[in-house]
Write a structure and sequence with these properties.
Two copies of one chain form a homodimer. By secondary structure, chain A is mostly helical. Chain A has two domains: about 15-55, Homeodomain-like (Arc Repressor Mutant, subunit A), CATH 1.10.10; about 60-180, Orthogonal Bundle (Tetracycline Repressor, domain 2), CATH 1.10.357.10. Chain A is about 65% helix and about 0% strand. The first copy, chain A, is globular and about 50 Å long. The two termini of chain A are about 30 Å apart. The interface between A and B is medium-sized, with 31 and 31 residues. Chain A binds a DNA duplex through helix 3.
Chain lengths: ~180, ~180
DNA sequence: CTCCGATGTTGGATTGCGTCCAAGAATACA
DNA sequence: TGTATTCTTGGACGCAATCCAACATCGGAG
């Protein structure tokens, strides 16, 4: 699942480096005042390269979550148990740029953008969960509602986990608790 | 709730006219190939004026729903019963540009944009519903999950209603059914 | 060792969204 | 007729995102 490239020019940067540079700048200047050029300049690559790593400026914060989410979607399509696939999102999700952005959302002027991106990701999950439920025999409308609850549980758990100043609690615990109420 | 302006220059267009022009163009050329200038040109106003009516290109389809949604949010803040406030979104929601866009999403090349906008609106609702639930004494995490279900119910109902080719069923009926399963 | 294919990088150009503003036009009212 | 108010318009601007051709750097095959 890991080793990919065998030949060709090596990458001049990485998602992590770019995300780190972006976070610094968001804290210093705010999200809106930070252009993609600013990020790549600090990371030491050209603006064009940014879009080799991310497909949009906002995605820079979501790299880790998206990877986990896509893995969960893959399992859902293989008709694995729903709650199991969703709970697995929590495992292996490190406190990265996203967690930092959530706790410092207002300081970064990120509230609006973060809402948008969260909404999109939650809905993506909802769609996949609902499709899985329909495949399992559920009525489409009901499936959307129940899937909406589960998807909301995932994102709400991530937020609660990031916002825990010292409340402790692993993401996995929060996530299973949230999923249990769905 | 209606009569507003007393003096000043009268408006040269309206949300409805712009939405209609936009729908025509989306059908003819697709969403991406249709610029804001295209829309305003057909509607007979200048590009600048567009943003006096909508705050973004995508909002052109959501005018009716947003009005209903904002009304529901207002009632939620007044601590009205949740399901009642949400069900009221269905009343007075006419089959407008949004319904047309939903049924012709692929023909208009709208799938991606429509997903984004739907996600954002669903999440806006979820946030307000959850806040209302927390005010009512619910635990924040649980509230997000239940609110996620209710918000999903609203949007799913609108989609089911728009997609009904001839399945009949009023939006209100579909909506109450969806909310009942939340 | 050299050539070759594959992979990444870079700068530049392009398009269109969204914002801002100053100037002007059209209304109600005194 | 003036005046305040509301809206329109054109122009300019910054920036996100896309596209592309030229170039750089790797591994491997001959």
């Amino acid at each position: 699942m890991a080793s990919e490239s065998r030949s060709g020019r090596p990458r001049a940067s990485s998602r992590e480096v770019l995300a780190e540079a972006a976070c610094e700048l968001f804290l210093e200047q705010g999200y809106d005042a930070t252009s993609v050029s600013d990020i790549t300049r600090r990371a030491g690559v050209s603006r064009s390269s940014f879009f080799n790593y991310f497909s949009a400026k906002g995605d820079v914060l979501w790299s880790g979550f998206d990877a986990q989410s896509e893995e969960a979607v893959r399992r859902l399509r293989d008709d694995v148990a729903i709650d199991g696939a969703l709970a697995a999102i929590g495992e292996g999700l490190a406190p990265d740029a996203l967690a930092l952005a959530i706790t410092n959302a207002e300081a970064m002027g990120l509230a609006a953008e973060l809402d948008r991106d969260r909404a999109v990701r939650q809905f993506r999950l909802q769609r996949e969960i609902a499709a899985r439920m329909v495949r399992g025999g559920a009525a489409p409308l009901i499936a959307q509602v129940r899937a909406g609850a589960s998807a909301a549980a995932v994102l709400a758990a991530v937020w609660a986990w990031a916002d825990r100043t010292a409340s402790g609690g692993s993401l996995t615990d929060i996530l299973t608790e949230a999923l249990a109420s769905a």
